[in-house]
């Protein structure tokens, strides 16, 4: 009795906790609402399975608890039941997997109109790079990194000259304009993580990773690092703002390009070396 | 519906292998220290594993001190925090659970359950333990070197693992970690080959593969997995050692560390992740499959009912084992590998859920119409079902690639894997110790203490890890020593963290009850007799308890039936031991 009751209490307690929990995901700020829907859907399916199975366990424990003289049944197999359980479980799994893979397809296929935004991680700060008027990012390589080329941009690549470099300041994005976030690392693994975006991806030195999204909600969001990158991992903060179109255009007109940075070293340069 | 397929064949086949001459120890040293008796080696393995496991438990309390009460303890800096987390994780997974299930339970139970006198290669078996012991010493040693142990996370991802931004990265910490792992693998391979050969070659007459207790099936399959998976880790450790010591670049692309161009170039950090998880995912099942097997036997014995769907259970173990080699990259959905891998690995991962679910159903259907003794081993088994089910279901979140994207690297993952491969297998370990202690010592563990131990551990662990999922849902990343001041984290998360930490301390302290029980019962426990649970498997039928050297006296047992003949209709007792010719014999040989 006691044990069965304890299991029932665990089931009820878990469900109540789930329903009353003030701990829930932050309001979303991109087009990936489907991820939230999938989590909710998975909660429903798994939650029902959890409750049904545990209540059944509780019932068994209650009903078939040891009693002097009770004789247990002898039933080694029941093929029909086992086949049914296999079919039902497989159906549940397909129900979860199919919509998941469908959206994964959208996640990995970047729409044509997405503009590129580069995020560069290093121990333990973020820098960003936006394409200039030509709409293209120049190539870059960690081997080119030096004090006055902190992102290792290829100086011979004409596309790179007008690239906008944001170092030590916040990144801005325009609401409603899809972006392809290109992720790069100078040193170790990092992970560009903004909980409100839902999407995230590791940044790996030696390669460029990516994800895409469409910002949908104006606001200021914290950037965190989600891949262990040394002792500063927990303190690798940053900020992203999602602006209205006008604010964004104003902001971007005030930024410095790579060409400007390398020619007039004076002020910009001191700013750079002071960065953490 | 009742089928009785698994009863005895008309005749018992003759011995295929002659009795081997056993090595007989002559001195105290060869009997208890450099012993070649699998039972002694089992105790040695278990003792060392539990001792180092206690270190990992203390480390978890230190982690929880920091998370529950940040900035209160000066000795916990980010450096030490990462060292605690790394060592805690690595010890728990490899040095405690793997060693305890395979080296401990495997050594004790395989020969006894299959009716063998010992392992096939007793000398190699002894070496296996001593190399494991050496691996543990090296691991412990890393706590005392300048710079301390590595803080790279138990996944040891390069490049950070061997760079100066990570504790122990430029010191001895990471080197000792890698050396210790390599030693562990060498030691394990010796033991593992032994377990496999013994199961295949050493079974007594009549003990067909389909009459093996599920415990043996679980340990056997886990060992095969380990023999195939550990080499991937071994090459990864060796390659990383080369990268660290010889400046090769297997895993190291060109990179700039704090403004300095390093001489590395051309290597692939993701290659390491593939090698690591090619080991790491099967590792989850190396820990889980023995637990699956053991819990099947505990449930069947204490519910006085045959395990439901034995053949399905065996094929599920084998199937899960095989599938576990093609799901590894579900740990790498956000690693930057080619995104189309996501389709493949999400599909294989969710497929593995099917045999796993069937096992859960079968445990529960074994309870159905049983006669359930709610003693300590059964309680721990029920606790296993609850926590394993919980962790298995959250696995459906993380395996489904699109759902994993927002959740990966958050506390949701930490909660998930603790439920499924931390708490669940540990509960089985406890259940198994309560179950087999009488055979090992000849005395029962105290039931009352055992029950208190169970309730505190089970309920406490649930209170630790169930709410933790929700901290992850909020978006709190794992491996953060503090919550920081990110706006999306409400203050209530800190309160919840303090609560979780309190629960963790209580669970930690409750383990003293268990240790006390172990030592107290050794001398004061109620004598158990040879077969206190009235169980069917061979280890309970030995002429001596604890079993003597050679296990079975002059004559090895003959096996007539499968291990689950509980409550057989028409039998005079509610169990028929595997070596009992029994009443069904004449009926079924028609
Ligand atoms: C009372 C018992 C335990 C408590 C309170 C506990 C607590 C924790 C905590 C707080 C973390 C750090 C989470 C983070 O911020 O990243 C952690 C990490 C971990 N734990 Fe446990 N744990 C316990 C038992 C176990 C067991 C039995 C296992 C065996 C599988 C285990 C395996 C791990 C692993 C693999 C990690 C990850 C380490 C890393 O991130 O590198 N833990 N544990
Ligand atoms: Cu990081
Ligand atoms: Cu896995």
> Structural class of chain A, please?
alpha+beta
**Cofactors, ions, other ligands:** protoporphyrin IX containing FE, copper (II) ion
Order of helices and strands of chain A: HHHEEHEEEEEEEEHHH
Radius of gyration of chain B: 24 Å
CATH T-level fold name of chain B: Cytochrome C Oxidase, Chain A
Order of helices and strands of chain B: HHHHHHEEHHHHHHHHH
Strand percent estimate of chain B: under 5%
What would you report as the Rg of chain A, rounded to the nearest angstrom? 27 Å
Q: Strand arrangement, largest sheet of chain B? A: 1-2
Largest sheet geometry of chain B: 2 strands, antiparallel
Low-confidence segments of chain A, given as residue ranges, are: 265-276
- Major interchain interface with per-chain residue totals: A-B, 105 and 119 residues
CATH class category label of the largest domain in chain A: Mainly Beta
Give an account of the 3D structure.
Chain A has 276 residues and is of the alpha+beta class. Chain A has two domains: 2-66 and 73-108, no CATH class; 115-274, Cupredoxins -  blue copper proteins (Immunoglobulin-like). Chain A has helices at 2-20, 33-63, 79-108, 158-161, 245-253, 258-263, 265-274, and strands at residues 115-122, 125-130, 164-167, 171-174, 179-185, 190-193, 200-203, 209-213, 219-225, 238-243. The longest helix of chain A is centred in the N-terminal third of the chain and has 31 residues, at 33-63. Residues 265-276 of chain A have low confidence and may be disordered. By secondary structure, chain B is mainly alpha-helical. Chain B has a single domain (40-250, 262-541), classed as Cytochrome C Oxidase, Chain A (Up-down Bundle). Chain B contains 15 helices and two strands. A two-stranded antiparallel ribbon of chain B has the order 1-2. Chain B starts with 27 loop residues before the first helix and ends with a helix. The site of one copper (II) ion has 7 residues of chain A, from loops.
């Amino acid at each position: 009795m006691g044990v069965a009751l304890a299991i029932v209490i665990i089931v009820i307690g878990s469900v109540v906790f789930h329903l009353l929990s003030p701990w829930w995901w932050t309001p979303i700020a991109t087009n990936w609402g489907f991820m939230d829907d999938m989590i909710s859907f998975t909660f429903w399916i798994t939650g029902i399975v959890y409750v049904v199975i545990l209540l059944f366990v509780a019932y068994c424990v209650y009903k078939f608890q040891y009693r002097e003289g009770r004789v247990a049944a002898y039933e080694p197999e029941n093929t029909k039941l086992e086949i049914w359980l296999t079919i039902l479980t497989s159906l549940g799994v397909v129900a979860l997997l199919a919509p998941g893979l469908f959206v994964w397809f959208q996640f990995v296929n970047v729409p044509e109109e997405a503009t590129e935004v580069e995020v560069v991680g290093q121990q333990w700060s973020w820098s960003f790079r936006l394409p200039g008027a030509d709409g293209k990012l120049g190539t870059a390589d960690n081997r080119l990194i030096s004090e006055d080329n902190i992102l290792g941009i290829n100086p011979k690549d004409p596309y790179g000259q007008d690239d906008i470099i944001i170092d030590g300041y916040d990144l801005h994005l325009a609401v409603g304009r899809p972006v392809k976030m290109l992720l790069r690392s100078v040193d170790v693994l990092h992970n560009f993580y903004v909980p409100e975006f839902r999407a995230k991806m590791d940044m790996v030195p030696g390669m460029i990773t990516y994800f895409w999204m469409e910002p949908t909600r104006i606001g200021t969001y914290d950037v965190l690092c989600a891949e262990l990158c040394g002792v500063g991992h927990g303190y690798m903060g940053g900020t992203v703002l999602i602006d209205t179109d006008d604010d964004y255009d104003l902001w971007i007109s005030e930024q410095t390009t790579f060409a400007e940075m390398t020619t007039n070293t004076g002020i910009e340069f001191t700013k750079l070396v002071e960065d953490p | 519906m009742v089928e009785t397929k698994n009863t005895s064949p008309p005749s018992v086949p003759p011995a295929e292998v002659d009795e081997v001459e056993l090595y007989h120890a002559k001195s105290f040293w060869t009997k208890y220290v450099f012993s070649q008796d699998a039972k002694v080696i089992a105790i040695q393995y278990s003792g060392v594993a539990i001792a180092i496991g206690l270190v990992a438990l203390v480390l978890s309390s230190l982690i929880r001190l920091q998370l529950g009460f940040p900035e209160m303890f000066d000795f916990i800096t980010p450096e030490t925090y990462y060292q605690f987390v790394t060592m805690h994780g690595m010890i728990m997974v490899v040095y405690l659970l793997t060693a305890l299930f395979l080296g401990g339970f495997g050594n004790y139970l395989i020969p006894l359950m299959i009716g063998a006198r010992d392992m096939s290669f007793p000398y190699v078996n002894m070496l296996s333990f001593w190399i494991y012991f050496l691996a543990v010493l090296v691991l412990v040693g890393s706590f005392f070197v300048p710079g301390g142990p590595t803080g790279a996370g138990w996944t040891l991802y390069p490049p950070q693992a061997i760079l100066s931004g990570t504790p122990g990265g430029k010191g001895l910490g990471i080197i000792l970690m890698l050396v210790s792992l390599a030693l562990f693998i060498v030691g394990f391979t010796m033991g593992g080959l032994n377990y496999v050969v013994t199961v295949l070659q050493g079974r007594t007459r009549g003990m067909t593969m389909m009459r093996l207790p599920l415990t043996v099936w679980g340990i056997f399959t886990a060992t095969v997995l380990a023999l195939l998976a550990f080499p991937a880790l071994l090459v990864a450790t060796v390659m990383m050692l080369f990268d660290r010591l010889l400046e090769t670049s297997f895993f190291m692309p060109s990179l700039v560390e704090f403004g300095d161009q390093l001489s590395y170039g051309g290597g692939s950090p993701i290659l390491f992740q593939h090698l690591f998880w090619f080991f790491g995912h099967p590792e989850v099942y190396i820990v889980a499959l023995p637990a699956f097997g053991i819990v099947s036997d505990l449930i069947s014995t204490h519910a006085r009912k045959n395990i439901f769907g034995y053949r399905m259970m065996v094929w599920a173990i084998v199937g899960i084992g095989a599938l576990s080699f093609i799901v590894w990259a579900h740990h790498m959905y956000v690693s930057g590998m080619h995104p189309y891998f996501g389709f493949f690995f999400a599909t294989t991962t969710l497929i593995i859920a099917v045999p796993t679910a069937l096992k859960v159903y079968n445990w529960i259907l074994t309870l159905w119409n049983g006669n359930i003794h709610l003693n300590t081993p059964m309680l721990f088994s029920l606790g296993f079902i609850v926590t394993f089910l919980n962790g298995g279901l959250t696995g459906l979140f993380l395996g489904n690639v699109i759902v994993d994207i927002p959740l990966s690297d958050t506390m949701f993952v930490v909660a998930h894997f603790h439920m499924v491969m931390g708490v669940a297998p540990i509960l089985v370990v406890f259940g198994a110790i309560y179950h087999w202690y009488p055979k090992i010592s000849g005395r029962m563990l105290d039931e009352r203490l055992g029950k208190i131990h169970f309730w505190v551990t089970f309920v406490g662990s649930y209170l630790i890890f169930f709410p933790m999922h929700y901290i992850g849902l909020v978006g709190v990343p794992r491996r953060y020593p503090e919550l920081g001041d990110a706006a999306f984290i409400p203050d209530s998360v800190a309160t919840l963290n303090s609560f979780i930490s309190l629960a963790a301390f209580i669970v930690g302290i409750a383990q003293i009850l268990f240790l006390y029980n172990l030592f107290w019962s050794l001398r004061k426990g109620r004598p158990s007799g040879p077969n206190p649970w009235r169980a069917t498997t061979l280890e309970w039928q030995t002429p001596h308890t604890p079993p003597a050297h050679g296990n079975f006296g002059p004559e090895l047992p003959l096996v007539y039936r499968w291990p689950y003949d509980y409550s057989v209709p028409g039998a005079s007792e509610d169990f028929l031991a595997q070596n009992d010719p029994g009443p069904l014999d004449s009926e079924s040989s028609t």
